């Protein structure tokens, strides 16, 4: 029989950080990480940055030996079927039962499928396996179409263009990142993409994908040896919802300590809508750094130590020679004040007169 202890579902930064933090406080309690991904835990941001572009990328969160030395049982390639909160155990599709005293749910997000004829043939860029497949395909291609002009879409398009592929980025928005950063920034992102060798086609949607490219709602056809679907992600809350955890707007509701509505169950990372002390409200965690910080808070709280999510969320995106760095709580804004600087620009976003975020764009010296 498996001894009860600490269990984390998910091997991303939230799950690994939670397990690492709990283990640092309790050396003798069993600690397990369950993951459907067969790969050793890795960081995802470099996949659309350094790794795709062929640069050196530190992907591993920890080595296999690190997990062994810290007595963390890393169980990869396993699908969790359901969480039994009444008996406090996690049940896998293979019939294994893992009893827990403390459980951290960090199941992350799943890519939103491209729901058009032929859409299932498009490549995605969500996992390490996806990145390997895309990188290999790029070696034998001369052109690419990327669908979706969010952060990942922009980075992937610039990366493919950097590999020498004639790359087109297609999206329904007039300009890239318009909903997140506004029209002024989006217009500048078009220039960044153009400088990186990417053609942007906006205000249109893809209606079909075939072996030689995509067909657009405008009637235009865009050829591409590779088609990449960067059509967004959706928090994977299936286990949480089935277990009866409180959810809102497609995410698991947690307090500032990462506690869910069910005793001894915590959540961290993409799936959460967490109370951020600095913001004074619920905030969706959408990026690697936030997930790792939330995982640490969950691990400390589960271990019996005081901890709260009180940091301002932050993330960075690289498009060609320009790095965009955002700090803030996301969501809607009433206005954005843009100021030019020597090597780029900055934007301050406000809602109801209160600053809710800042964006800094900085070009590398070689740009």
UniProtKB/TrEMBL annotation:
Keywords annotated in UniProt: FAD, Flavoprotein, Oxidoreductase
Database matches in InterPro entries: FAD-oxidoreductase/Apoptosis, FAD/NAD-bd_sf, FAD/NAD-binding_dom
Example of a GO MF term: oxidoreductase activity, acting on NAD(P)H
A Pfam family recorded for this sequence: Pyr_redox_2
Annotated Gene Ontology cellular component terms: cytoplasm
Cofactor: FAD
SUPFAM superfamilies: FAD/NAD(P)-binding domain (SSF51905)
Domain (FAD/NAD(P)-binding): residue spans on this chain: 7-283
Protein name: NAD(P)H-nitrite reductase
């Amino acid at each position: 029989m498996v001894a009860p202890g600490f269990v984390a579902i998910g091997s991303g930064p939230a799950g690994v950080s939670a397990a690492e933090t709990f283990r640092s406080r309790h050396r003798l309690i069993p600690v397990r990480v369950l993951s459907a991904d067969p790969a050793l835990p890795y960081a995802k941001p470099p996949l659309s940055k350094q790794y795709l572009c062929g640069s050196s990328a530190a992907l591993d969160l920890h080595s296999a030996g690190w997990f062994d030395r810290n007595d963390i049982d890393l169980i990869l390639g396993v699908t969790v079927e359901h969480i039994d909160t009444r008996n406090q155990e996690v049940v896998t599709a293979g019939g294994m039962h893992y009893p827990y005293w403390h459980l951290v749910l960090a199941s992350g997000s799943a890519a939103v499928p491209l729901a058009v004829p032929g859409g299932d043939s498009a490549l995605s860029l969500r996992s390490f396996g996806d990145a390997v497949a895309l990188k290999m395909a790029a070696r034998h291609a001369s052109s690419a179409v990327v669908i979706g002009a969010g952060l990942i879409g922009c980075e992937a398009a610039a990366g493919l263009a950097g590999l020498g592929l004639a790359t087109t980025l297609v999206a329904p928005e007039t300009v890239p990142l318009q909903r997140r950063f506004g029209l002024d920034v989006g217009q500048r992102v078009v220039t960044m993409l153009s400088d990186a060798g990417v053609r942007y086609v906006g205000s249109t949607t893809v209606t079909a994908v075939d072996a030689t490219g995509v067909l657009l709602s405008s009637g235009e056809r865009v050829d591409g040896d590779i088609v990449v679907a960067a059509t967004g992600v959706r928090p994977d809350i299936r286990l949480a919802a089935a277990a009866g955890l409180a959810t809102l707007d497609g995410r698991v509701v947690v307090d500032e300590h990462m506690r869910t509505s069910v005793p001894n169950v915590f959540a961290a990372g993409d799936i959460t809508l967490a109370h951020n002390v600095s913001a004074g409200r619920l905030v969706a965690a959408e990026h690697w750094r936030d997930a790792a910080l939330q995982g640490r808070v969950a691990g400390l709280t589960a271990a019996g130590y005081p901890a709260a999510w009180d940091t301002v969320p932050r993330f960075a995106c690289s498009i060609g020679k320009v790095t965009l760095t955002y700090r803030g709580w996301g969501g809607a804004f009433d206005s954005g004040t843009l100021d030019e600087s020597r090597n780029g620009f900055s934007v301050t976003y406000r809602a109801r007169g209160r600053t809710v975020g800042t964006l800094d764009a900085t070009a590398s010296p070689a740009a």
